[in-house]
Amino acid sequence: MEHRDLIACHECDSLFRKPPRLRGLVAHCSSCGASMKGVRHAGLTLDRICAITVAALITFMIAQAFPVLALETRGLTSHATLFEAVQSLWRGHMHLVAAMVFCTTMLFPSLELVALLYLLLPLRAGRVPRAFDAVLRLVQFVRPWGMTEVFMLGVLITIVKMVSLARVIPGTALFAFGALTLMFCVIAAFDPCMLWEIRDEVMNRGGAPARRRNRQRDGAHGDAASPTQPATSSFRAKHAGLIACHCCGLVHSLSMQGSEPHCSRCRSPLHARRPESITRTFGLLLAAALLYIPANLLPIMHTSSLGRTEDDTILAGIAYFWRSGDWPLAVIVFVASVMVPMLKLGILTLQTVAAYRGSDWQPLERAKLHRMVERIGRWSMLDVFVVSLTVSLVHFGSFAQITAGPGALAFGSVVVLTMLASNQFDPRLIWDNVRRPPARAPS
User: Fold this and answer.
1) Which residues does 93 contact at the CB level (< 8 Å), separation at least 6?
2) Burial class of residue 219 (count of CB atoms within 10 Å of its CB; 0-12, 13-18, 19+)
3) Residues 67 and 172 sit within 8 Å (Cβ to Cβ)
4) Strand 69-73, strand 76-80: pairing
């Protein structure tokens, strides 16, 4: 049985009645403060998101086709595209690091843009594309792993780092990546969960012109919508015998499901809580903690210049920026490469231990910490991107040569493992043992 008039918070499992169409407002859960997924608002219409996605895809192709940077020194010139940076890592036997850079800067962003256009263009024309469910799940899967904005910051740090070695010439792709970063910020503000409701409306209305529906749906004049209204005060979906699909957000009744329930709309498996969340999170955290030690001790780059060889660790790179007077960059790299991984490990360990013990200690603060970990986790890839660009740019034969070191592999693995750990932890476990006054289930 479906409950289409209800919506459950994906972080604390609180039940709400679906609000009216929000006009430029963002709905937040009154219990944990999380933004509500799948709540429709008029901030970005299908026409606008289609236009921005098309522009982003064209800009993305330009960014891949032209060099990002070029170096010129003593009559020698070297340039690097993003694909050449991946190739340099691959030729240097850093296959896993090359795969990380390729996936986070090329594969996943392109998949998100192409998949979004595959969904948006037919919906805008008033029809549902084939394999809608699978393609939208793909968009939701790859979105957290696209790191164009982190790569752009890595390019800026590489420029500052290379200025002392050679003349740095910005490439066409540098400006394309700058524009692409802004476009992805706009696209990231669009909640793909809203497409499930748009699909249902298209199917129910039987192909009415989509532009007219968009104007009626997204730009209609009327009263400003209020935030979501709770179905009951402090009531959880699990306590009411309900379960919300983690993919499309549709609320179902557990009593109507079989032994292996699936969502009636998107066919995703339903689970009241993520299976073995604590065990998987702890295992990934343990692996990340063990790799964090060699990630800081082993060299992240090998530099060979005029017969001299030098190994640079992450901390040595931070010290180089500090001694050179570029203390703002030193602070940025220190925060992204040292502080953020330590914070992620500490916060996720706290969350795992508290959930395992069934603690109800400071649930709101722990929920905010979990959201912070999810938002800052990707920025630790900064050093990996700097290494990939530096390796591809500095190849001047016997004059200067830079190759990636084992520390880059260990550090990249720490970033991926902590992001996976954050993804595996179910934030609803934070609220399961919070004592609440008894409440009557919504009718």
Assistant:
1) none
2) exposed
3) yes
4) antiparallel
CA distance 283 to 69: 40
Radius of gyration, CA atoms only, the chain: 24
CA pair distance 63, 186, nearest whole angstrom: 18
Phi, psi of 162 (to 5 degrees): -85, -15
Pairing of strands 308-312, 301-305: antiparallel
Q: For residue 345, what are the contacts with CB-CB under 8 A and spacing of at least 6?
A: 285, 288, 289, 292, 418
Residue with tokens 């190759």: 403
Task: Check: pTM over 0.70? Answer yes or no.
Answer: yes
- Report CA dihedral (159, 164, 167, 169) to the nearest 10 degrees: 0
CA 257 to the chain's CA centroid: 32
Phi, psi (rounded to 5 degrees) for 393: -85, -40
Q: How far is the first Cα of the chain from the last one, in angstroms, to the nearest whole number?
A: 13
Query: How far, in Å, CA of 285 to CA of 287, rounded?
Result: 5
Token readout for 169 is 């010439």
- Bridge partners of 17, per DSSP, are 6, 229
How far apart are alpha carbons 246 and 305 in whole angstroms? 53
Going residue by residue through the chain, which has 443 residues, state the pLDDT in tens, using 9 for 90 and above.
567 788 899 899 998 888 766 555 677 888 888 888 766 655 567 888 999 999 999 999 999 999 999 988 777 788 889 999 999 999 989 999 999 999 999 999 999 999 999 999 999 988 999 999 999 999 999 999 999 999 999 999 999 888 877 788 999 999 999 999 999 999 988 888 889 888 888 888 764 444 444 444 443 333 333 344 444 445 788 888 888 888 888 888 876 555 678 888 888 888 888 889 999 999 999 999 999 999 999 999 988 765 677 888 999 889 888 888 888 888 989 999 999 999 999 999 999 999 999 998 899 999 999 999 998 989 999 999 999 999 888 875 555 678 899 999 999 999 999 999 999 999 999 998 886 544 444 44
Listed as own residue / partner, the contacts of 85-93 with beta carbons closer than 8 Å and 24 or more positions apart are 85/388, 85/389, 85/391, 85/392, 86/388, 87/392, 88/388, 88/391, 88/392, 88/395, 89/388, 89/391, 89/392, 89/404, 92/391, 92/403, 92/404
**CB atoms near residue 359 (< 10 Å):** 16
Residue 14 three-state SS: strand
Find out whether 71 and 393 touch, Cβ atoms under 8 Å: yes
